[in-house]
Amino acid sequence: MTTTPTPTTPTPAGASLREALQATDRRRRRTDVTMRVLIISAFVLAMIPLLSLTWTVVSRGIGRLDSYFLLNSMRGVFGGMDAGGIYHAIVGTLEITLFAALISVPIGLLAAIYLVEYGNGKALARLVTFLVDVMTGIPSIVAGLFAYALFALLLGPGAKFGAIGSVALSVLMIPVVIRSSEEMLRLVPNELREASLALGVPRWLTIIKVVLRTSVAGLTTGVMLAIARVIGETAPLLLTVGVVDSINFNLFEGRMMTLPVYVYRQYAQGLVPCSDGDASCIPDINLQRAWAAALTLFLIVMVLNLIGRLVTRLFAPKIR
Q1: Please, where are the H alpha helices in 159-199?
Q2: How far apart are CA 233 and CA 138, in angstroms?
Q3: Which pLDDT belongs to residue 316?
Q4: Gap between the Cα atoms of 161 and 180, Å rounded
């Protein structure tokens, strides 16, 4: 005859242990809630100026931003005319910035590879690291003066064209590219390098096929940050490139206009004195152009970052 086991009731000692394990420490709970509130508050405080800046630029610049404004230059425009555009400034900004990236990215990436892969403990690596730290903090006007002085010695005083501006911007880009690339390369696990070298793969091929391939997402992000760092610079481009109202596609001849310089110049001109009864004169036309150009620069930076994200998604190593 079998007997059905009766369920045992928990002893007082077991019940108290279960309650102790399920209970929450009030002090830890208060600390957790406090830290959550502080983190969320810091996030909100950081978003307020960003959203305010975005709303100000969009609301003030969207009214003037149209196809005519984007596809025309300032040639022949004067006074309060309801005319003029930023096509020449867009061309100058893209050409100068891309040429600066063409100079900076190879130099910065190769320097970062040397520091991480070959320069451990060497005096040259320590010197390069020190110089990169110094270059990171130099004012942009110093980079413009350097580029202007360099080409003034080579070509004579008064030389101003787009390539000089690219050299000035590359001086600002190189330390950013080196620092960001160095950090991304150091994140690659050493086990991947050792596995490749153990299979007899040369070190240079390991760097290209394993190290760079693994860190391509971070490297792309670093390059995009460097471009965003210099695309809005005004002072070095005023010194090296100058201003012009016409369209110039040649980086190596003649002055070029850029969007930051265009914004500065239009805003500095301020209100236009219009005569009474002149309906064709718009007193704040310069300010409208300045805000529309600032919005265009904002959108260009956004597009470049989206391109960087797309490259990261397409070429990053697949985990699964």
Answers
A1: 162-186, 190-198
A2: 13
A3: 66
A4: 30
